[in-house]
Amino acid sequence: MAVKLTIICIVTFLMNIPFGYWRNNVKKFSVQWFLAVHIPIPFIIIMRIYSDIGFAWYTYPFIIGSFFLGQKAGAVIQKSLSAKCSNTSSFIFTDLLRCIK
Fold first, then answer.
1. Average of per-residue pLDDT values in the chain
2. For 23-59, b where at least 16 C-beta lie within 10 A, e where not — what string?
3. pTM to 2 decimal places
4. Chain centre to alpha carbon of residue 59
């Protein structure tokens, strides 16, 4: 069970990095901001169901923590890339290709 929870937390963290990048580049509480925060949630629920970790109370702090850490990591990456490049967008993958050159 602990291995499954660890894998779910890592996937949740990695999945939220692009959404945190997007969220940091739009106006706070706008529709895009709301979507950047909430689009990953159904995927996390699906992972919880299919991995058989269920919805036990002790799993919530780990999953929620990895969710917000991924969002924060994306925001930090967006800030550092926008400091290096003047023309960043809301899509992390194209910005990485464009700015790392």
1. 93
2. bbbeeeeeeebeebbeebeeebeebbeeeebeeeeeb
3. 0.92
4. 18
